[in-house]
């Protein structure tokens, strides 16, 4: 395979991959829209058997949870009064909670747009953006217990604010049952932390043992993505439910798959469940030694379909006069690798879902590890991308050198191949045999230039997902006009530079004798096609491609010079 055809195949594969990504994005948007229809019934639950308690509360749309084997609890109110909410503010979070659920969560250090006044709202009780983290208990054998629809009484009306110099803020609630059982639920917020400790202390002041299952769940409607260009990263980031179990490891399910696949029923010890979206996620993290079971359900309400992912614990029994302590963590925040790692939860780092393709996700993890270490040295994510590109090019240098050496030799062989073409005319079989004999005699392998080009494809795609998914780069500046590496270049300077570099590279790339004229024309306009695609890509990715192209052009000119020196009788040896 000659160098020109190698470049052509590589270019077409790249264009096809990018077009597929764009088509897949459109399909995903249509599927999400179809997954959130307006229902005519008030509430309909699909999934595992339902937690007792009643129909919808909290905005009239909260689904009943599902617990395998749980019977309906008598004596629970069919329409409990909406519990009162209190507001909690820390240095990183502003939340509203009612004891049974977190109904609103704002991320104070993440503005929606760079330098904007409005921050990202992760959870909301508005019907069109409903998203809540709920927890409760289901009584065994009809015992009264507080589900996520129960009324908890706060210790004080608040507001609760983490004061300067204060590292921890506790927010207690109490539920009292007619059977003498009291559940004291305490939310503990810590400075700089997106993980909230949630502890239940169950006290039995009654005369009979109390048994119940505890559960925690995330319930939301799919988020609607605004159209921000054909290559906007948010369109390609996974949006749906994810979980990690000790046996099956990491798995996920997009919202449109909830109705198409069987309801989840996955046992685990510890693990976590979460709802993922671009740059942010929420997760319930039970105790690492607690046996739980993960399951899913959908709930159709008069405001749309809600999707529920939950983990359910085993039955706990509290004897009269005894207490039980049950704890978990609730994460509401960004997909920051360092903060996630500090939780010491196995598999939680998989919430940073770089790609649905495992090979790309694996490469992306390695790339980010290198990128973050370079950032520790240079202190700027843009320059870290430049450094990462240099590292990648250094690793691939032996293959790249072979590629450009092959191209340079092809240029030297062109006159001799042209002579063979003139000699054998239309006899393609003899021409092919004579050409192969020439290659054998001169110890030239035209396939040597293929591998480096194909290796660039998974690296390029992994770089795209890594840069698009890494919240560390969100709104991160480089220099001058590039103030957000995850957004497109506002003045298209980097895409234009990329086109110029590709044209220069093409100029020094030999065209094989006998190449089809149509292929020559396609090659001529390929840099422009790439330039159009790069207009909408994240600036960080285009920066990588520009630097990589510059380095590649430099290597090509260097190799060409050495090959020319050797062929003109110089003492330079091509290696």
UniProtKB/TrEMBL annotation:
This is Membrane protein insertase YidC. Keywords: Cell membrane, Chaperone, Membrane, Protein transport, Transmembrane, Transmembrane helix, Transport. It is a multi-pass membrane protein. The keyword Membrane applies. HAMAP family: YidC_type1. The chain crosses the membrane at residues 6-23, 357-375, 381-402, 491-509, 530-559. Residues 86-370 form the Membrane insertase YidC N-terminal domain. The gene is yidC. It holds the Pfam family 60KD_IMP. Interacts with the Sec translocase complex via SecD. Specifically interacts with transmembrane segments of nascent integral membrane proteins during membrane integration. Residues 381-561 form the Membrane insertase YidC/Oxa/ALB C-terminal domain. The keyword Transcription regulation does not apply. It is found in: Cell inner membrane; Cell membrane. Belongs to the OXA1/ALB3/YidC family. Type 1 subfamily. It comes from Aquilutibacter rugosus. It comes from the Bacteria. Required for the insertion and/or proper folding and/or complex formation of integral membrane proteins into the membrane. Involved in integration of membrane proteins that insert both dependently and independently of the Sec translocase complex, as well as at least some lipoproteins. Aids folding of multispanning membrane proteins.
């Amino acid at each position: 395979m000659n160098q020109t055809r190698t470049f052509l195949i590589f270019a077409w594969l790249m264009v096809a991959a990018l077009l597929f990504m764009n088509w897949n994005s459109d399909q995903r948007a249509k599927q999400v829209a179809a997954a959130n229809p307006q229902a005519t019934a008030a509430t309909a639950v699909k999934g595992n058997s339902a937690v007792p308690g009643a129909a919808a509360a909290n905005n009239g749309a909260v689904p009943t949870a599902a617990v395998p084997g749980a019977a309906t609890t008598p004596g629970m109110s069919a329409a409990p009064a909406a519990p009162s909410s209190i507001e909690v503010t820390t240095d990183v979070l502003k939340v509203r909670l009612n004891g049974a659920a977190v109904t609103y969560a704002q991320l104070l250090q993440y503005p929606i747009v760079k330098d904007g006044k409005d921050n990202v709202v992760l959870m909301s009780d508005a019907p069109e953006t409903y998203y809540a983290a709920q927890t409760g208990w289901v009584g065994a054998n009809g015992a009264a217990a507080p589900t996520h629809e129960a009324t908890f009484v706060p210790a004080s009306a608040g507001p609760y604010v983490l004061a300067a110099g204060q590292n921890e803020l506790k927010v207690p609630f109490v539920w009292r049952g007619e059977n003498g059982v009291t559940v004291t639920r305490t939310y503990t917020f810590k400075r700089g932390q997106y993980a909230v400790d949630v502890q239940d202390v169950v006290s039995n002041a009654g005369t009979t043992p109390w048994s119940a299952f505890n559960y925690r769940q995330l319930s939301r409607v799919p988020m609607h993505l605004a159209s921000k260009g054909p290559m906007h990263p948010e369109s390609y980031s996974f949006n749906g439910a994810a979980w990690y179990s000790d046996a099956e490891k990491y798995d996920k399910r997009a919202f449109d798959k909830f109705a198409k696949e069987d309801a989840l029923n996955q046992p685990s010890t510890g693990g976590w469940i979460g709802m993922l979206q671009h740059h942010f996620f929420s997760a319930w993290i039970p105790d690492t030694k607690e046996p739980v079971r993960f399951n899913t359900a959908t709930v159709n309400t008069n405001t749309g379909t809600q999707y529920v992912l939950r983990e359910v614990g085993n039955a706990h029994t509290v004897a009269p006069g005894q207490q039980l302590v049950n704890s978990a963590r609730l994460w509401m925040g960004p997909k920051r690798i360092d903060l996630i790692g500090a939780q010491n939860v196995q598999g939680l780092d998989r919430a940073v879902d770089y790609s649905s393709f495992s090979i790309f996700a694996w490469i992306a993890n390695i790339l980010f590890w290198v990128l973050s270490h370079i950032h520790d040295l240079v202190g700027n994510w843009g320059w870290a991308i430049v450094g990462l590109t240099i590292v990648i090019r250094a690793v691939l240098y032996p293959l790249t050198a072979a590629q450009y050496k092959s191209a340079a030799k092809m240029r030297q062989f062109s006159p001799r191949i042209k002579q063979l073409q003139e000699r054998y005319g239309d006899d393609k079989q003899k021409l092919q045999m004579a050409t192969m004999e020439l290659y054998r005699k001169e110890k030239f392998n035209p396939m040597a230039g293929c591998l480096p080009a194909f290796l660039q494809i998974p690296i390029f795609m992994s770089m795209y997902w890594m840069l698009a998914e890494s919240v560390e780069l969100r709104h991160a500046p480089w220099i001058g006009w590039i103030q957000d590496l995850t957004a497109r270049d506002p003045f298209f300077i980097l895409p234009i530079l990329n086109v110029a570099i590709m044209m220069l590279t093409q100029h020094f790339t030999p065209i094989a004798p006998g190449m089809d004229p149509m292929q020559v024309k396609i090659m001529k306009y390929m840099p422009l096609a790439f330039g159009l695609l790069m207009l909408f890509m994240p600036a960080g990715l285009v920066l990588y491609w520009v630097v990589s192209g510059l380095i590649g052009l430099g290597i090509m000119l260097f190799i060409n010079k050495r090959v020319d020196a050797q062929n003109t009788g110089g003492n330079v040896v091509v290696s």
